[in-house]
Amino acid sequence: MKKLSNYFVYAFCIIAVAFSAGAFIKANAKTNNMPAAQPVDLTYAAEKALPAVVHIKYLQNSKIQTVEMDPGPWGFDPFEFFFGNPGNSGRQQRKIQTPKKEGSGSGVIISADGYIVTNHHVVDGADELTVTLDDNREFSARIIGTDKTTDLALIKIDGKNLPAITIGDSNDLKVGEWVLAVGNPFNLKSTVTAGIVSAKARSIGANSIEAFIQTDAAINPGNSGGALVNTKGELVGINAMLVSQTGSFTGYGFAIPTTIMNKVVADLKQYGTVQRAMIGVSGTDVNKYFDRMKEEGKEVDLGTMEGTYIDSVEDGSAGAEAGLQKGDVITSIDGKKITKMAELQEYLANKRPGDKVTITYLRDKKKKTATLTLKNQQGNTNVVKNADLDVLGGNFRQLNDAEKQQLNINTGLVVMKVNNGVLKDAGITKGFIIQKVNDEPMKTIADLQKAVKDASTSKDPVLYIQGLYPTGKKAYFAVPLQEQ
User: Fold this and answer.
1) What H or E segment, with its residue span, contains residue 288?
2) How far apart, in whole angstroms, are the C-alpha atoms of residue 190 and residue 134?
3) Strand locations in 246-365, DSSP E?
4) Per the residue annotation, which of 55, 121, 216, 447 is the catalytic one?
5) Is the distance from CB of 161 to CB of 137 less than 8 angstroms?
6) Mean pLDDT of the chain
7) Whether the predicted pLDDT of 345 surpasses 80
8) Greater pLDDT, 370 or 188
9) CA–CA separation, 401 vs 412, rounded Å?
10) Mean pLDDT of 454-466
11) Alpha-carbon span 425 to 392, nearest angstrom
12) pLDDT at position 205, please?
């Protein structure tokens, strides 16, 4: 009987082990139930994206410019001394002809009626833009607006039923996901390269606002402004730059996410300039702040290793009104976790002045919240628009040679007529000669137009005008543009 019972014990043990092994195999199969790696087919994405990516040819015409020349070791130009104008000492000015400049880049058609997104640096300063489609049709393009802060530009060609790309959500991208870079590197049309998303919300100090998608898809000169697309062929970014010591691709490419692009495009269409919403704080990533403190031999404890450390708060800003202080750490905005400054910038890039946001932050390691109303760069919630010469209320012309010689000056714009506008309000009258605006010399009407445009969207929307009357009397005026 004892021997028989031993058999039962042995049998039970064997059955138990078998059940245990089966359960282990089943459980392990569940935990490792991952799909087998499949080859990635990117042909569909390429077919979808290629027709929407265009080649952009940039042309800047030759121009006559006045430049300052070094007077040399004598303190004057010997040529001038012996052959004319010996009394005009100091730095001399010469007229030179600049060479014609040509360049190329890429762009992406985002609407069937001809709106194209590219980089600011692709079109900046262009006199002519020629767009060539994937099917070799050519169009002349005009600039709708540019934004240097994000390095984006919106241009337009006259066409119908153009092959617009489908715009995807860059927020849905995951690190390790396959993407294609489509563009025209080295003037090689319709080039596709593949890679993965290497990182998101990357900041490299190239632009004032940046939250780049980093990719190892090859991006080379000429790719700028082209498309970064996912495997569905949807646009997720605008290729902007590469980081290289050779000038060619070495493994690091960067694209502007569509989360930023969409807002910039909408603002440029509606207002002509980007409506930028600001908290009014400057800061850095928490981990970068820790590194800085370590270099200084200091130990700090902020209660977190992630977030945005606030270095300073601007007086009168939204952040100041909400009570934010130097040393606070922003950890989330509207419930979205913030681990670094680029993520905060990317979120705010989708907001407009007047929008309200809720900030969660740490102060002395204690959690706090604040709701604030975002402001524009000028410290209010008004719509910021590009002003043009009409706001001045005047007509202008360049000085002629006789006037330059009589007044012993080299450049300037004569006020020909004063109508209702900011010039009249400031007391500037007909005949006044504008020599400088905001410390920039006024050589042409285009110089004045640029000065007005830049000032109207700046933090200090004022024209500081220096000049003189025909009698030689100098005068200075501060001309505000804020209320225009």
Assistant:
1) helix 286-295
2) 7
3) 253-257, 281-285, 308-313, 329-333, 336-337, 356-363
4) 121
5) no
6) 85
7) yes
8) 370
9) 11
10) 89
11) 9
12) 79
Average pLDDT over residues 345-350: 94
Residue 4's pLDDT band (cuts 50, 70, 90): very low
Q: Which of 77, 134, 147, 151 is catalytic?
A: 151
Q: What are phi and psi of 439, to 5 degrees?
A: 70, 5
More confident residue, 251 or 128: 128
Cα gap 462→451, rounded to integer Å:
10
**pLDDT-derived band at 35, boundaries 50, 70, 90:** low
Separation of alpha carbons 252 and 245, rounded Å: 11
- Per-residue DSSP letters for 388-401? -GGGTTEEEEEPPH
Instruction: Read off the amino acid at residue 322.
Output: A
What's the rounded Cα separation, in Å, for the pair 143 and 153?
8
* % the chain with pLDDT above 90: 60
Confidence (pLDDT) at 364 = 95
Location of structure tokens 């209010």 = 380
pLDDT at residue 17, rounded to an integer: 43
Split at pLDDT 50, 70, 90, the class of 481 is confident
- Within 8 A by CB and 6+ apart from 24, the residues are none
- 42 dihedral zone (left: phi>0; alpha: psi -120 to 50; beta): alpha
Q: Under a CB-based contact definition with an 8 Å cutoff, are residues 445 and 396 in contact? A: yes
pLDDT digits (tens, 9 = 90+) for 295-307: 999 999 999 999 9
Question: What distance in Å separates the CA atoms of residue 452 and residue 392, rounded to the nearest whole number?
Answer: 9
Per the annotation, the verdict on 315 as an active-site residue is no
Exactly one of 224, 317, 332, 456 is catalytic; which is it?
A: 224
User: Residue 68's pLDDT is what?
Assistant: 62
Residues 6+ apart with CB under 8 A from 85: none
| C-alpha to C-alpha distance for 395 and 417, rounded to whole angstroms | 5
Residue 55 backbone phi and psi in degrees, to 5: -95, 130
Rounded CA Rg of the chain: 31
Surface-to-core class of residue 383, CB atoms within 10 Å of its CB (0-12 exposed, 13-18 middle, 19+ buried): middle
* CA gap 151, 284 in Å, rounded: 21
Can you say whether the dihedral through the CA atoms of 52, 57, 60, 61 is positive or negative? negative
Q: Give one DSSP letter per residue of 413-458, joined into a string.
A: EEEEEE-SSHHHHHT--TT-EEEEETTEE--SHHHHHHHHHHHHTS
> Quick one: 366 exposed, middle or buried, by C-beta within 10 A (0-12, 13-18, 19+)?
exposed
CA 319 to chain centre: 23
Q: In the prediction, which pLDDT does 8 show?
A: 46
Centre a 10 Å sphere on the Cβ of residue 465 and count the other Cβ atoms it contains: 23
What b/e readout covers 283-306, taking b as 16+ CB neighbours within 10 angstroms? bbbbeebbeeeeeeeeeeebeeee
- The Cα–Cα gap between 174 and 176 comes to 6
Annotated catalytic, 224?
A: yes
